[in-house]
Design goal:
The protein has eleven helices and ten strands. It has 237 residues and is of the alpha/beta class. It has a single domain, classed as Purple Acid Phosphatase, chain A, domain 2 (4-Layer Sandwich), CATH 3.60.21.
């Protein structure tokens, strides 16, 4: 089985569609066996968060094996919709306006008079009404990690001071530890992650970062891995 991990998308539909085409056209891609893992951050910043979710669901509906991990941006959406948090003042700094605009809502229509709970409740209800059930279930079912015998796939990374089994949600979604970024970092498994944009992929022995800053660079990156060998094939849109 080949595993294709895809980095942070951030509402960049054109780049995702192009990358999907390259992966599916790969002679090595086996529809019955191979797996596509998305490392989270589907939304915010870019203009077409809704379209990105639709594109991913399209592959799933066409019997492509996919796993969707949660990113820190997606956590904002989940906390807002399902945990009923009033986290708008924080989320808006991460690109909230572009996300809900893709669902046909202008945030200024709701928050022009403040961030009171009753106003935020109206915004939440409006967004839920605009979202298809498939989209609601998409966010409800995001996973924190995926692992094989050799690899651990997460959104942001890990805390190197903890054992892998002791990592928590915050570690997986927000980690930017200096020790983790050290080129001499070692781990029981190879960590494949995004979250921290780099001009080029980071391809260290125990750490692979495939966030190439798609929103501002236009470059969306995937890495193809296989548990039976040590090959690493990088694909960009």
């Amino acid at each position: 089985m080949n595993i294709y991990a895809i980095g942070d998308i951030h509402g960049c539909l054109g780049e995702l569609t192009s990358l999907h085409k390259k992966i599916l056209a790969n002679d090595k891609f086996d529809v019955k066996k191979d797996l596509i893992i998305y490392l989270g951050d589907y939304i915010d910043r870019g203009k077409n968060s809704k379209g990105v979710i639709n594109q991913i669901l399209k592959l799933k509906n066409n019997k492509i094996n996919t796993i969707n991990l949660m990113g820190n941006h997606d956590e904002f959406m989940i906390d807002f919709l399902f945990n009923k948090k009033n986290n708008i003042e924080n989320w808006i700094n991460f690109g909230l306006d572009q996300t809900i605009r893709s669902y046909g809502i202008e945030i200024v229509d709701f928050i022009k008079d403040g961030f009171e709970d009753n106003i935020i409740d109206k915004l939440r209800n409006s967004l839920l009404e605009k979202m298809d059930e498939d989209h609601i279930n998409f966010f409800k079912n995001l996973e924190l990690f995926f692992e094989t015998e050799k690899y651990l796939f997460v959104h942001a990374g890990i805390d190197p001071k903890k054992k892998l089994e002791d990592q928590n949600k915050k570690d997986f979604l927000w980690s930017r530890s200096k020790d983790f970024f050290n080129k001499d970092f070692k781990s029981k498994k190879i960590i494949v992650h995004g979250h921290t944009p780099e001009p080029e992929t980071v391809n260290h022995l125990f750490r692979i970062n495939i966030d190439t800053g798609c929103f501002f660079s236009g470059k969306l990156t995937s890495v193809c891995l296989n548990d039976t060998d040590d090959s690493r094939v990088f694909i960009s849109n």
